[in-house]
Every structure is written in C-alpha cells, then in structure tokens.
Amino acid sequence: MKLRAAYVLLPIVALLHVGCNANVMGKFGGTDKAYPGAERPASEVSIVQCGFSLTLIAIDENKSLSGETAACSYALLPGKHTFRVSIAKRDPSGAGTWRQQGDQVVEYDLVAGKTYSLNAFEDQKTPGVWKIDMVGDKFVTIKEIDLRRSAKAGG
User: Fold this and answer.
1) Structural domain of residue 119, as residue ranges?
2) Backbone angles phi and psi of 90, in degrees to 5
3) pTM score, two decimals?
4) Is the pLDDT reported for residue 26 higher than 60?
5) Measuring CA to CA, which residue among 80, 75, 72, 82 is closest to residue 40?
6) Number of domains within the chain
C-alpha cells in the first residue's frame, strides 16, 4: 500500500515544482510572479488566468509565460500587456482538440488589484467566428476573429 501511495504522490509533488503553476505554494496561491524585482502585494499587481478554449503562448513575447486552458495564472504589473494565444476547441465527443493554425495577438490594459480571465469562444450564430475576451470584475474586452477568412487566405 505504501508503494502505491508513492506512485500517486510523486507526480503530484513533481507538478508542484515544475510547469505553469510552479508557484503553487506562493503568495498568490498558485500564481506565478511574471514581473521583475521584489514580490509585491496583490493590491499592486494584476492577475491573469488562462480561461477556456485557448492556449496562452506568450505574454509580452515572453514564451516562458504560457499555459493551457484553465492551467495557468500570472501576476503582472498593471498597464498594457500583449497576449499571444492560439484558439483550441475540444470535441464534445471527447475525440480530441482542434487547434487554430497561427496565433492571435490581443492587447489589454490591466488594473492593479484585479483578476482577469482570458477566454475564447465561438459565435453560436456564425460558426468559424471566434471571440477572445478578457474578463475581470465585470470588465469585458472582446476581439473578434473570423477563422473562416484566415483559412481561405491560407492560414
């Protein structure tokens, strides 16, 4: 029984030390510090979390700041930041995930003390048209992307 517990606990312990949420036991409760200098209180930083249907490729062109859907959280200094993302749609049947070819770049002006969720969703009335939004404390900014046009243009 002890050996089986070690097999279960070892991967969990390893996840605490590597990957997108390496700072699981940190000050921000699972949020990685993504700014230079000393750690700041939550009231002085903006928290950005990976939401649904997208992969975060980079923040401000820093590719080490990345993560999959619902699997990352970063503390950033307030102000304008650029997010490079790729839209990912899970097949409801569980057969896999469709990923957009190419990336989308969105820019948001973040406010100190706020937590934001970066999401993508397909327009129900127009399949192929996707929206990327940054939601935080009733604040929503949306960028619309027509993947049908980019597919016709070759990417």
Assistant:
1) 2-152
2) -80, 135
3) 0.71
4) no
5) 75
6) 1
